[in-house]
Amino acid sequence: MTRAKQLVIDQDGILRDERHRQINLRGINMASDAKMPSDPYLPTHQKSSEDFWDGDNARFVGRPFHLKDAHEHLQRIKSWGFNTIRYVYTWEALEHEGPGKYDTEFIDFTIEVLRLCDYYGFYVILDPHQDVWSRHTGGSGAPMWTLYAAGLNPKTMSNTWAALVHNTWEPSPADFPKMIWATNYTRLACFVMFTLFYGGRDYAPKCIINGINIQDFLTNHFINAMVFFYKRIKARAPELWNTCIVGLESLNEPSVGLIGHPNLAILPDEQPLKLGPHPTPFQSFQLGMGMEVEVDEFEFSNFGPKKKGTRVLDPEGVRAWIDPKLDDYDDTRYGWKRDPGWVLGECVWSQHGVWDPEEKKLLRSDYFTVNTHGDVVNIKGTKNDGEDGFVNLYFKDHWALYFQTMRKEVCDTVFLLCQPPVMRIPPLIKDDKSCMDRRVIYAPHFYDGLTLMLKRWCTWNVDVLGILRGRYSHPAFALKIGPSAVRKCLAQQLTEMKKEGLDNMGPIPMLMTETGMPFDMDSKGAYSSGDYSSQLKALDANMNAIDQADINVTMWCYTVHNNHKWGDEWNGEDFSFWSNSPLSDDNPNKDRLSILQAPTPHDHTDCTPFVSPAPSLCDFVGDKSDGETDSSPSQQTPTPKFDESEAHSASGDNKFHLPHPHNPLHFLSRGKDPHEEDELPPVSQKGVRAVEAFARPYPIAIGGTLTATNYELIKRHYILEIEASGSNQETVIAIPQFVFPTNFLSVTVSTGTWKTAQNQLFWKHNQAGPQKIEITVVDHKPEFGGFLDTFYSNLAEPCCVVM
User: Known catalytic residues?
Assistant: First the structure.
């Protein structure tokens, strides 16, 4: 199936193509490697050096991968049945050298990668990614100079516990606690940066730089960098717009900072994550000024954060704030001019009367609950309307600025994706023309927090969304026990999130731009045993929830440099659907077809494509019509290698031409009947993990509207029910041949005919009204070997119990 010429949103908030078919966007985030520079190569587990602190000269050309390796990765993603890529990039990649200094080499390299995404027929969403603000505060996203602009010293974040940074963790990055990076959202650096970014004018009016408030300085540079990026794409590759590049997302996972915090002397109950030594905001202010404090220390239990004691933290006089007398820094480095009323080296909150450093006394515990306009803002909402105060005041204002700028400066037809803070109710902007039109998409995130933190799959779980929305008198009532209850709970949460979007933003689609689960469950046992049954259960439950909620999704994630020791090479996370690590030599499943084994790990500068020398399930292609079979093995074609040395560009950027139409890779020929396209050439699937759960049937295009769907992984049995919009309409279903080999399909349709090609089933139903199709794999046992025999026989058995 070729892409739609242009997608539109109908009156019910459903994406449709020019034939009025319901279109489902399903894909993956590509790639988490883009969070970190390519030169110097700085995975977070690498001990910090001078290169780490040279943020101005970080280079991102080669992210997410080198051009010579692009076909391997894009073919692999395409073979999973995905049609969408959420393309990860960072503000730092665009503007790392200093304010207004854009990296055109990186942008032009990105254009070449996007051309390849277009060649493979992907829809692309551009994602300005961040996690806990920046690499130098323990995550990714903003350039290092933004910290200097806010008066913070990036080199003293760890000393003052302002941020927990993997690269600087003592005694060794190898000892970095799992998931502790996320607690940086409620530590000093993020408190400062996100409060200034969204609410500096109200809460830090003394912070003036270049004659404007720090809020405007930061947000203007952020949005202007995106405008420069997108305009250059339009100028150099206008053919990508609206067909390949269909969406521009707002800032990834925005945080509230301190805005709405009810009491700076406490950690509020509403704060979901507490882990390790965790100061209150007031204690973080003191630590930032070099003062010793005793803080509560937490661990994560089966039922959430649990206090395990206290711990004394002592920065020994080192401050989180730039001290021009002590630090090798002054504002001439970046050419900005700071207002004399903003004193460097002092806490910005003490300068605004929130606390007294001399007396170590908190003066305004509720400072962030009332703004300069008299609005009462707190975690529960605003006093007047009962809605989320941060989201409906500060986030909404930022979104409106982003929306208006993108529409005026970039494109008035591309979809704009609105992503509120994680797990918060979306803003009330239905019919608000200042920040809404008919080409906006709601883009929330969702993760199964229990599995994420415990890193094991349980037959019990908790309705986290229900707790956050106050639906239970006690959290114990949110407990769901049993595999069926867990699956239902996950599906209900996604369905409720979809409803919240419709209620608050109007009839627009929901594209969940992140969800996923960790592969390093059970202490990484699968990497030696080959038994991925825990991962399969978790991922199948998540994918089932997506199916039942009928939402669009891009899964987290694809990582080019994933390996078993360091995972995604970022803060200990291990989410990638594909890994560069081989199974151990003594693993009984070492030679299992296609799924688990990977080639020898590549050096980070060279990921040579590996082409499987033997036929696999993805080599079988069939064509069925009216129940008849005509199938034959496809001929294997090796993947050609491309080298940047073959590239040419007037600017000297990495570039190469797309394959010639007669090249075996030219399987997405434009203008052909999509049923008759050449077959996908094989690509190595070694290293793909738990593919049976995510490479699953789903409706790519529906000649009408979806009414019900269900996939039973164990039986490999798929049911789709639709309301057909007319006679002689066509529905297209993805059938990835790893688990749905065409030669072994049994298909039953209520009306019409069907045929298969290119990992897809084309069903022409000749009547309007209710229609149904069932697809089952028969007389075929996957040649996966090893653990799958066990998996298929006991998928529903519990793998852990309530402790």
Answer: 253, 514
